[in-house]
Structure formats: structure tokens, C-alpha cells
TrEMBL record, chain A:
SUPFAM superfamilies registered for this protein in UniProt: Thioesterase/thiol ester dehydrase-isomerase
Family note: Belongs to the enoyl-CoA hydratase/isomerase family.
Top-level division of the source organism's lineage: Bacteria
Organism: Propioniferax innocua
Pfam families with a match to the protein in the record: MaoC_dehydratas
Domain called MaoC-like: residue spans: 193-261
Designated name of the protein: MaoC dehydratase-like protein
Stored InterPro entries: HotDog_dom_sf (IPR029069), MaoC-like_dom (IPR002539)
Automatic annotation (TrEMBL), chain B:
One Pfam family linked to the record: adh_short_C2
Organism listed in the record: Propioniferax innocua
Protein name (record): 3-oxoacyl-[acyl-carrier protein] reductase
Record-level Gene Ontology MF annotations: oxidoreductase activity, acting on the CH-OH group of donors, NAD or NADP as acceptor
Residue stretches making up the Ketoreductase domain: 202-383
From TrEMBL, chain C:
Ranges of residues in domain Thiolase N-terminal: 8-275
Protein name in the entry: Acetyl-CoA C-acetyltransferase
Active site positions: C92 (acyl-thioester intermediate), H383 (proton acceptor), C418 (proton acceptor)
Similarity section: Belongs to the thiolase-like superfamily. Thiolase family.
Record bears the keyword Ribosomal protein: no
Organism: Propioniferax innocua
One Pfam family in the UniProt entry: Thiolase_N
InterPro entries for the chain: 3-ketoacyl-CoA_Thiolase, Thiolase, Thiolase-like, Thiolase_AS, Thiolase_C, Thiolase_N
Family matches, as SUPFAM superfamilies: Thiolase-like
Amino acid sequence: MGDLTVLPEPPSLPREFARALLTFGRDGVDGEIPGTLVQTTTTVDRDRLMDHQRLCGFKVNDTLPPTYPHLLGFPLQVHLMGSADFPLPMLGMVHVSNEITVHRELHVDDELTLQVGAEAMRPHAKGVTVDLVAAVTVAGELAWESRSTYLHRCTPPSDAEDPDPVEAAMPEPPAVPAGPAAAVWKLPADLGRRYAGVAGDINPIHLHPWTAKAMGFPRAIAHGMWTYSRTLAALGADGIGTSRVWFRKPVLLPGRVALHVAEDHRTAALASPKDPDRIHLVLTHQAL
Amino acid sequence: MTDTYTQFVNSGFGRSLAKQLGLPAPVPLRRHTKGGPLCDGPVAVIGEGEHVSDIVQLLLDHGIDTSTDAETYGGVVFDMSDARSPRDLAHMRENGADIVKRLGRNARIVVVGTDPDLLDAPAEVATQRALDGFVRSLAKELRSGATANLVYAPVEHNRPAVRSAVEFFLSGRSAFVDGQHVRLDENTPGVNLSADEPLAGKVAVVTGAARGIGAAIVEVLARDGATVVGVDVPAAQDALAKVVNRARGTSLALDVTAPDAGERILQHCHKRHGGFDIVVHNAGITRDKLFVNMSAEKWDQVMAVNLESILQLNEVFLGDEGLGTDGRVICLSSQSGFAGNRGQTNYSATKAGVIGLVDTTADIAADRGITVNAVAPGLIETEMTGRMPFATREVARRLSSLQQGGDPVDVAEAIAWLAQPASGAITGQTLRVCGQNFIGA
Amino acid sequence: MTNMPRKVAIVGGNRTPFARSNTAYRRASNQDLLTAALDGLIARFGLAGKRLGQVTAGAVMKHSRDFNLTRESVLATALDPATPGIDIQMACGTGLEAATTVANKIALGQIDAGVAGGSDTTSDAPIAVNEGLRRVLLDLGAAKTAAQRAKALAGLRPGHISPVLPATDEPRTGLSMGEHMARTALAFDVTRAEQDAIAAASHQKLAAAYERGFFDDLITPYLGLTQDNNLRPDSNAEKLAGLRTVFGDPETATMTAGNSTPLTDGASTVLLASTEWAEEHNLDPLAWFVDAETAAVDFVHGDEGLLMAPTHAVPRLLARHDLGLDDFDRVEIHEAFAATVACTLKAWESDTYCRDTLGLDGALGSIDPEKINVNGSSLAAGHPFAATGGRILAATAKELNELKQREGGTRRALISICAAGGQGVAAIVEA
């Protein structure tokens, strides 16, 4: 318990994915989340950063978008979920919500120490959720942290006995902003492949209609982290502060999504342009 | 904003690990938001000192309930300014202990005393000095993000100064200031033009403004209504542009160690903003190395940026063309200036130097109505950082009463408070923003 | 309205460092670069949240999707979104022509303040499909029936795959700019040594300007670059003499990569304003934008050099103000090639050229080399086409301002920029 695995460099994502695929069929809902923390040190590749900024609509410069460190920590998440003692199968897990806090802006020349850990499972209406928490420190100072909540679909644990009176990691989302769309975005069919190329998240549900169909989706779906990033960029929310996102209906590719923004510019939602009740995500951002 | 550890130990696994290690569980700190309440819940005012009515009025102005029969309290203020014998201190235990027991999350304890340096009789000095030890210990007993701080008032009544200090320590602005005291002098402070924007109409210069704490200082000063001039080296102008454009300020490219730096800042402020009121000497660098391996370059660079530049700039800022009445000079010290830090002989020397610098400069600037203070952020572990295992480092981080690390915003909030017109009775002091870090406490 | 035209102040400028093509900015677009240059300008002059009369800028190598390049850049900055953004294009003259447009509107009282700028990247240049494929695709789009679509697709040929890369060749002559320049250099008997001397001096002067902090308030770093990466401070005539010639007949060639500008990426901006606006915003003008003249030559049918249009623009501009070349303290001649500067100077010194080509009574005169391009120019800094005008204008205004502060009196500078298509722009700046 409480082991720390220090990796000399970020692990190779394809290899980690291959390892994680072997977790297929696991269903250790009653198992325990291992207490291992994975740590590594990394620097930022400017080309990749710029590709990410452009693809997500952030300004192309030397400051890391709030969502960028997530992409750096993702291989560690996969490493953790692919480890032998992780009770749930990684394949098919659904990213249901995320919270990111930027304490101080990160720059391309910062040397980042990344730490990723997993937290206890919580019962969910459609199964169980597990949180992957990540932190970035620079020269010993906490600069960035994130909590990603993933859902493993299964029969919810029947024993109503609450394993631990853990407070919900995220508050309930606010109401979807009313009124006409601030923007309608046309998302190309290859968006999933392009984002996968930058982020390394090659989950088949994002890549191609065929691979997505194999996973039970009618078409390929956009990466949640892309929709999160794109919405933050639209709000101009690229500085210090906390943002939270609640993912709802997947965004099918190709497709169109409508951006709705509240008057105070702190809450936004993505919805279907044709059916405003079909919500893809709700997002809040609290700057200073 | 909450740190990972906070979430970590609030989780099932984290909690059990924390228990095993005997680690306390921190709570997310209550920080200032524009238009937010001063305190969460009622605040009891205890004591019979001369400040009681003013403090009650302050709370009423903020719409805070001051009744003494609440279930949970948002805070308690002890006015012990009239205590003159050790026996008087018992009043706090008798009337306060029960209320302290009923403090809610992120509650505040503020003790108002009388500056012992201004008293003569041994019993009086001992009594007032005792408050400091009391507050430091009480702060360590508090849980759930609560803080305790001490305000030393002058013998002569200085009502607006006491009001401003009590207000700060009750508010979310002081989230990471714990177990500290400030001394108020007899000078009647200025008046904040607006409660929402206490720095409205003020022009502030922030050095080293492009990144980290400097960027947070710019943001908080601008939020509080100041027009900010961000200063940083030419090579940092892209990051600086982002910071000042968000704050709607102006950028100035210069190296604070340049011989003409002061003159150029002065010119910029006079030409562009008709003068300036606040200077935050934030520019600082670290060049860590064990003393025996320290190169001349590492030593000299740190001295030049962290200490010599401040002395040189102050010469200009405190000159005839410099800061006017109600001017504010605020320096950045560091906990390592108090406690030292392995590998940081050069850095700690400069940060201790800053403490002496503000003490003396305050005297020189006093007759012009300018205050000079420093803020000392908590210790940041060096040398081992990045290689230190998570748990060890996190335990180190827990070595503070608030059981968590501070945020750049916390340092910025303390600076913004010292910059207020209403803070004019505070000078020559170094305020620590460290969550009562046990190192060098 | 009274007192028109008004004086136009050059308040200051900002640019990105310039980067050789496919280096530091290989992934930056024109919009990224222009936005970065604007961001630095806005921070320096406290323009966040302010509405300006207009921002006029352009790019020479431009994607069709960037039809509103300037407006999109404005929207990405902290400027009041009610600031209009206008695109303009005049090849290498874009920046100075943009400044002229903005200045004229200020002079006429139509606006009070505006930004002129330009951005170019050859790293992110638009690549077009070749003409055959374009035709097929257009036919396909117009097709209404399956048969028509099949017919359109039947027009596809393997050769259609090769894309059309942008080039700096002149459409009417098929010659590159370098080849045109080589012809003119030969006609004016410009030697290799003369050109290499100009190039070496450009590098040395630009390096010296950086060294003394001249660019501290003219440049904002971008993507890790803090100064122009084409700059070779240790450049000298001996090193340059070792380079192979690249343009013209090998027998007579004198032009090398060292005395020609490389393809470069970057953006520049200049803030122009009326006296009143500058005063209101507590800004001291660096200098005044006095006047400008645009000219063109017939390089297709006539025997004029492609890059010689400024030799026409300048005497017309001088005549309008009753000035001679001697009346200028500083002269900026854009170094498209070292030979451009040499040919321009030789042309003005030549009785024959001035009489026969420019229609003057005799030689326009010579210029003291000490006054020319004193802080280096395009050979050292590089030449992102549309960004060069802004670079020169802001630096010249600052240079004049420093000169005036040092030595007093009214100080005057002449700027001359040649452009593709046989065009050129010249301007007078005063401090």
C-alpha cells in the first residue's frame, strides 16, 4: 500500500495500451483499487504542444493549455490501469467527468514532475466509477492537478452498504445555459484520429466508424478531452483557476455541436444543434 | 482550489493510508471571491476591550450575525487589548473555549492585543506578549482550515487600522496566513475608496510579473481595482503580455538589475499613468548549490536580483520623483529567510536580508507616509524536489497547521491587503504566508 | 472638420523575432504570428479592452481560409472586439502600404488610432491542388447526375496528384525574384564584393543593436525565439566570399545565399495615432509619419528592373516636400538582396538613369553610407514579406527618436521598400 513507482520517463503509450488490453474481462468490482502512485519527470515537446493548441482552438504559444498536462499524464493512467492489481478492465471505461485546477501557468520550458494515482471505487447508477488523480509539480511547487472519473459499466454493487462515506468528488453540474447557441462547430470525421495523433489516446471508439461499431457506438465519437479543451478555449479560460466538466451524450463524428455559454462566461455546454436537450457536456470555469 | 493530497486523503484508500501514517486530513481552504461573504457563519466577539463595538460594527456591516448562541461559528474575535495582568487572560478560556469547540470549517480566530513594545510595566508586557504564544498554539490545535492570528494595536486608539486588520484575518484573503501577528502603529491609515475594489485608482508596479507568484500578484491587484505595470526581462515578454493583457495593464521590458531600471520604471509610470502608488519587488531567482560548491556566478546573480536590485530601486522610488503619500513598498521574503534551507545559502541570505531591509527602510519612508513591508511565502522544498518520493514530500507538505501547501494566490492576497490605503498603519513588518509551517515557525 | 490633414504619430511597434523558414515557427500560422505580434503591442501600450479605429495588416503567402486574417487575429487578442480588422496585400510592400492606409485615415480624421502590420510564413504556406485536379473537383461539385459525376471523375489523371507549391516567381516573366535582381545587378555593374560588404554590415549592425538593447521594446519573444535566428553576428566579408553563387548566368553571377534574404517567418505591428489620441492615452510619439509614395515600373515590356520601383517613388516623394537626399539623417533601404541596395544607390547617383529613366534633370544624389540601415536590415533579420514594412517603420521611428534626444533638432528618415510585381513604396518619417 502506498507504493511509489518512479518511471525514468513517461511510458510508451502503445505498449501500455497493449498491456491494458489484457485486462479485458476483468470485473473486480469487489476488488480494491491499488494504492500505487506512478511518478515520472518529463519536458514538453513544443511541436506536439502546438498541434494540440491548434486542434483545440487555444492560442499557439509557450503556455500549456489547462488540459495539456492531462495528455502528459495519460500514459501513467494507462500504466496504472493496466497493472496486474488493478481490478477493472480499462477497455470500455467511460470518462464521465473531470476537474482540473491550474495553480500556476505551466510553460513549455518547465520540467514537470507528474504523479498519477487511482482512488476508491464509488457506486454509480450504471456501474462503478474510479477516479484517476494527477498532479504536476515544478521545482517542488504544485502547479496543476486533475481528477478524471471513469465509469465501468456493470451491475451496480448490490450491497447497499456504503464502503466509505466519501463525499462526491464533483458537485452536481449547474443548469445548461439557456438561449441560442453562441457557436455551432462542424466536427470532421477524422477529428478522433487527429486528436489521437496528438494525445496518443487510440481508444478504438474514437478512430473509425468500424472500430467504434465494434465497441457498440453507431459511429466514431469525439474524445471527451477534445470537447473539454475546445470549450475551454472558446471561453478563453486558459489561465489559473478551476474547471469542471461533466460528460453526457457522446459526440458522434462527423457531426455538429452547438456551444451554449452563460452570461457570466463561467458555465458552458455543448449540445446537439437540432435537439438542444441532447447535451454532450456541461462545463464550469472559475478563474480568480 | 484543492490539492491532490487533500483529495487523496479524502478518498477511501488515501484515508486509510493517511491513518496509517498518522497524517491529518486537510480541507479545501476558503478563499476570497468577489462579493462573497466575509465569514462562513456567525462570529462571536469576546472581551471587554475598547475595540469591541467597532468589531461588532464591522461584522454588522458585512451582514454577519454576532449572537453567542449559535450551533457552529464562522469565527471568534477576542479583544484582549485591555488585558494588563496574566490573570486577565483567563477571560479567553472562560468565554471562548466553548465557542472555539463549535467552530465550523475554515473558521477564523482573531485576537486583538496591545503592542507589548509600547508598554512599560513587566506584568503588562508579559501579558500582551503571552497572547503571541497563545495564538500560535491555538492555531496548531485548530482543524478544518481554521486559522488564528493576532493583531497588536497601538495604545493610542487606531480604530480604522484595527478594523482593516480584523477584516483581513476574518476574510478568505488570509486563507493561508496562520499563527501570525501584525503590529499596527498610531498613524491613521487611508480609506479604501471601494469595498469591492480596495485598490481602485491605484497604480501598482510588479517586478518579475510574467510567471508564477508574480503573475498571480498582477491578477489579484487588478481584480482589486489597481492599474498594474508588469515588469520583467525582455526574454519573458511573451508570457508577460498574456498576464498584463488579461489584467488590462501595461508591460515594461527591463532587467531590474540594470543601473537605469529605477529611472525607467519611474518614467514609464509618470508618463503613462501619472505616477504610481504601489511597488511589489517580486523579481527573484534561485541558483541552488551547496555552499562549498557555490560558484561566484550563482552567488552574485542571486544577490544582484534578490537584494541589490531592491536597494537600488528603492533609492529611486523613495526619492523626490518616487512614491507619494500613502505609497506602498512590498518585498518578497521567504520562509528560508527565517529558517534557512539546505542548498540555498545564497537565496536564504537575500531573503533574510529583505527582512532587515524592510525594517529599516520603513523608518526612512515613514515621514512621507509610505509603508514598507514584506511577505514571506512558505518554504518550497528544493534540491530534492522531483526526486523526493510522493509520500515523503507530501508528509513534508503536511508540516504546517493547515496541512497543505499554499497557492500563489494566497501570497498575492496578503500583498494586495498590505497595498490597501487602509493598511497604512502597518510598516516595517514581514508577514508570513505559510499556513503556519512548522519549520522556523 | 478643421485642421485637416492631421499629423500622424508613430507611437511604437512590436514584432515577433523573425525565424528562417521551417525553423522555430514551422508550425505557426500567419494568424498565430500576427496575433502574437499584436498581443505584445497591446501589452506594451496598454491597449487591452480598447477600441481602435482599425487594424490593417496582411500576408503575402495566404491561405484562402485566412480571408479575414486580420479580423480573426484581432478577435484572438485583448483588443475590444469592436475593432475592425482589414486585410491588405502588396507583396513586400504590404507592411508599409498598410501603415500608409492607416496614417491617411488618421490624417483625414476618419479614425484616431490604428495598427498597421503584416505577417508571413513560408513554413505554413498554402499548397494548392494542381490546375487539372482543381478543374475535376469543380466539375464534380457542379455535377447533378451520377453520369455527370462519373464523367468528371474520369478526368482524373495520375499527374493531378502533384500539388502546386507557392513560389516567388513573377507570373509574367516566369523568372524568380533573384533572377530578376541578378539582371539588374549586372546592368548596374554591382560587384560581389560590394554585395558581401552590405550583407556583412547588416549582420554586424543588427547584432550591435540587439547588444545595446535597442529591440527590448520593439520585439516580443515567440515560441522560444528571443531574437532573429538568421542573424550571424560574426558574419564578415571573407566568410561571405566563400559562398557559391545562386542566381543568374554562372559566368557573371554575383548573388549568393549570403547576400540574398532567406525565406523567413514572422509578423510585425506598428501603432499609429493622432496627436490628440496619443496625448489622451499618455503616450509619447516616437516620430511622425509624414507622407508616402507608391510606385510601379514596367519590368515586363520595358527594360526596368523588377525591384527598382522605389527609385521612382523616392524622387516623387522628395519633390512633393521640396527635399533632397541630403535632408535625411537616416535612410532605410529594404535589403531584399544586397544588390537591391547597391542598385538603388547607383541609380540615384547616375545622371543617365535619373535623366532617362526617372525624368529628372540629373542625378538625385548620393547618400552617406553611415546613414543607411544603421540597425541592420533584412539580410540579417530576414524578410517575412508582409512583416518587413512594420519592422522597418517601428525601428526607424525609434532610431530617429533616439537621435533627436541625443542631438536635438528635427530628424528625418527616408524609407524605401521594393516589392514583387515591379512595385515599391517609400515614406518619410520625422522626429
